[in-house]
Structure formats: structure tokens, C-alpha cells
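Quick one: C-alpha cells for this chain, please?
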Amino acid sequence: MKRVQQQEDHGRIGAVASSGVTLPGGANRARECVLDVADLSVEIRTDDGPLKAVQHVSLQVHAGEVLGIVGESGSGKSITALSLLRLLPERASVTGGSVQLGARDVLAMDQTQLRSVRGAQIAMIFQDPLTSLNPLMTVEHQLVEAMRLHNRKLPRDEAAVRAGELLELVGFTEPKRTLSSHPHQLSGGMRQRVVIAMAICNHPQLLIADEPTTALDVTTQAQVLSTLQKAREQMGSAMILITHDLGVIAEHADRVSVMYGGRIVESGSTSELLSNPRHPYTLGLLASRPSVTTRKRLHSIPGTPPQLFEELTSCAFAPRCPHAQERCRTEPPALRELAEGRLVACHFAEQADTWRSAIEAEEPEVGVDPADVASSSAPQPLLTVSGLVKDFSGRRRLFRASDAALRAVDDVSFQILPGRTLALVGESGSGKSTTARSVLRLIEPTGGQLSFDGIDVMALSGAALRRFRRNAQLVQQDPYSALNPRRTVGDAIGEPLRVHGLASGRAVAAKVTELLEAVGLRPNHARRFPHEFSGGQRQRICIARALSLEPRLLVLDEPVSALDVSIQAQILNLLSDLQRERGLAFLFITHDLAVVRAIADEVAVMYRGRIVETGIASEVLDRPQHDYTRTLLAAVPDPFAAGVGLSTEATHAVRPMIGQG
């Protein structure tokens, strides 16, 4: 009902936005086809030959609607989006098809014509707002420049006024202060809102949002998406929303196209496709996503998306499909119409109900029983944190007083039992990562007590501290920066063994092989370099390195926040298996409460450096007691649970608690 109402509203959008920004003829575009892409193909030149990154993609976007494009990294989503604006990297080129923007062919435009289209008729919101903004220019300078580039007659003073109105439209409560700021002075969510303001400043017909909320915490994601929706509706623009998160698609898209191997494998209305998926890849993506309401082992899709150097002679998904048959391996499926507006590229799409029933019939996993925790026979805590405090001193300033000290962690206490997982949950800036690094004494706590298996960690130094760190290892959020690009994977995994003098020579090589197999990689991967692996594989390598010293505690700092849902499921299942096999304890840091449901036994919710709620994970998630916990739960977009997502009104209502970031 909500989506139907939104579609009706698109036809009634007025010409004047609440900010005072005028849109000429906004309501008249309601039925127009803004973008018509037909049979688009893109190749990327590589040392191994031309890679067919996009193959025969066709799609349409009408005024006022949102088309979602979903798929794993490597499926061709971003290359398709870049093709629409002819922003492809140097080694990539369009090899076929057409891109019609109204009556104009984008692929036939010269550079002057393209410059008049980019930012004026089509605007793009990129994944990383920090790289989209000039670090040397203020926000006002960049917004004014974007407007006057397409309207030289616009006075600079008037453009500056409009810039403030745009910031107010996208949710800034202090637009004047933001206008004078540089990008580095803003949080990730604030930078993304600035990029949205820049994208809509020239009233484009079409917005392309390429993973606009990846790695943002759930509350910031909800704010950014509701801001984008509000701005788009008031500008009367259509939108292509590219993401790997089907929860985001469920709440914001009218139609959705699922991409795999450079092709569209399924498309249709969002409600129909998510409630009744017909392609096994779509079904796998849905099953891979953890639910905030149910705990069960996640259905990870084995393998990785293909790199296609030749024309397909089979189904591209067949090597990863549990339902593949002989026909799938000898004949590529055509994109066929099952019903009006419903397309699927699968020979056996009619059997999808059987596949889905088998998944739905699986029994949920049983989490920790509160009675077991309270039992007198419960094991002694492995890690005990009491009254932990961490202050960061203010910056020294010339000719004026230094900034006040910042208390990042304030009186934090918790325990972790052997073989169990405590999830530390909160937004960016809540103190989670600072707590983790303080526990490992990678940064020195200002106060409090740390006890590991009865040993006072605060009193350790030198060799004793190194022995403690053998038992407590860190897995960082970004596997790209965690590995030395100049060293092989075998060297990276074996390095802790050599540093701690536990093995050398052939013994190190044998241990590396054992660890690679334990995390689902092949022994010959030891000879390869990090850049030769996908993000999920690199995270497995980081986990293998952390396990090399046979620790008893793993501190996992947002280990799956930037991964595709299918890769995320693989990593979460791997961690669960390793915990069961090795009796590991986890301190798992995340902002995603759906991930908490999938892996955690206990949960502690952090807000502004303090723990505001703690308890058994199932109890906290099912019956939250603190307003902040309820806000985090409400912000989780969940395709399985209607009404979980935060409405625009609710998001603005909680903004005073969350803060402007």
C-alpha cells in the first residue's frame, strides 16, 4: 500500500520543493520514459583478453520510479551504471547497444554534449563520498561550482543561497556551518548527504546511486536513504539504485533487476520478485541475508561470480547452482517472460517453489539459553572488562587554549565466556573499535581493569604482553589494508609464527597449508599475492593469519560490513564452524543487528562511549528495553519482515538521538 501511494504521489509532485528550489514542469514528466537501455554490452581489455563485463543488458526507467539493480561484486552493476554516463575506465569500452536519454543517444554524443548532460540531466552518487568531494574546497564552493557549471548566468550569491536551501532539504540542521566546512570535517553520513545535494542541485531527470550506503551503520543508512527518497520525490526525478542489499531494495525500489555474470537474470516488481523469486541466484541472495528476527545457518552461495572471456555456451550460474541440470551446462538460458513484466533467465524457473520450500523448512538454530548463563555450572569468564575508560587528549593549538579531551569509552564493563560470542553493537563513533583496541592494549586504556583467564592484563609488559596477544588476536574491518601487497599470502599467514618463534622453515609451510584449508582456501593460494583475491577471500586470509597462533579469543572489528550478502554469509558460517571446532571466544564488533542475530550469544549495545543495554542476544533483539536499541532495530532494512524499516518520519524523529552524522 505504501509503494502504491508513493507511485500515485509521483504524478502529483508540485513544481516547487519545500526548500524553494524550483523544478520546471516536474509533474509533466510523470509518464515519460527517462532512460531506455537496449542490448548494452561492455568489454574490458585485460592481459588475458577482453573480459565481457556486461552482456546484452536492456532496461527502462520511467519518471518518478526507482529501479533497483542487485547483484554481487563482479556481476556488472557498476560497469552498467558508468556506461550510462560514459564514465568507463580507460580499458573498458561499449561494444554494442544503445542508451537513449529521452530522444537523445548518449553513446553518440561528443564530449561537449556529454558535459551538458552529466550533472544536469543525469547525476550520479558514488559509493565513497570522500573521493567524490574535493578535500581542498569547502562544501559551499563545490555546490556553487556544480550549479554555475550548468548555468553561467546564475549569480554566485544566489547560488550560495540555493546551496544552503539544498543542504536544508537533505536534512542538515545547521546548513551555514556545513557550507563553510571541508569534507574531512564531516562524518560519512554527512558527506553522503552533501553528495546527494550536489546531485540534485540541477534538477536532473535521473539519479544513479551506486552503493550509496555500503559500510555505513544502519541508522546513518536509514537517514541517507530517506534523505535521498525525499529529495528525489521533491525534484521529480527517477532513480537507479544499485546495491547488494535486498533489504534496501525492499523499502525503496518499485522494480528490481538482478544481475549475474554481466547479464540480467531476473526482473520484475519489487514486491513480486522478493516474495516469489524464480531464479536460484535471487533465491540464494535472499537466503544469504541474515534476518533480525530468526537465527539459522545462512545459505551461502558457493564460489564467486565468473569472469567471462568467451561467449556463454551454458548457464553462467550453473557451477554455483545446487539445482543445475545437464541442460544448464550445455545451453545458456534466454531471458524469458513468465508473466507480464516478470522476466527470468532460468530453464527450470517453474520449479522455484520447491527450492524455496526446502529452505523455509529448515529448523532455526537455538541460541544461548538464559538459564544456562545463570547456572552455577557455567564456565568462568575468559575475558573480564571492568570500568574501562579511554580518553583522547585535545589537539594543541597555537595562540589559544587546547581542545578539551574526548572521552571515547566511559565505564564499560562486560564478560566473555569460553566458546561464546559477545557482540558489541552501535553506530560509528559509539566507541566500539576503541574498546576493542583497548582490550588488546593496542592503545593504552586511561582507566579500568582487564582480566584474561585470571591474569591482570593491565599489569603486563614486554614478553608477558606478547604472550597475551598470542591468545587474543584481532581481525580488522578492511582486509585490503590489513595485508601487505608486496608479500605472498603464505608469508602473511606464516609471519606470526616466525615472529613468536613457534615454527620455521617447512613447519611454517605445513602450518600455512593447514590454515588455508581450515578457512576454505586451497594450499596453492599461498604463492599468490593479496590483489589476486576477492574481498571475501582476503577476509578468509586475515582470519587464517589470526588463527596461526592458536588464540583463545578473536576480536573481530566489523569483519563483514563491506562484503556482499553471499560472501558475508560464507564468512559468518566459517566463523561459526571455527568457533565450534576450536572452542574460540569472539568479541564481535558490528553495527548490523541482523548479523548479531546470526552469530552472537550475548550482546552489548554502545551509545556515546557507554553500554546502554546488555543481555542474551535473543532477549535483547526480541524485547529491547532501551530507546537506542529500538532505534537500531527499526533502522534495519529487512526483506523478510514487513514494517521493520524506518519511515521517513520516524527517521527524522530519531535524528536528535543519533546526531547530525
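The two ends are 31 Å apart (CA to CA).
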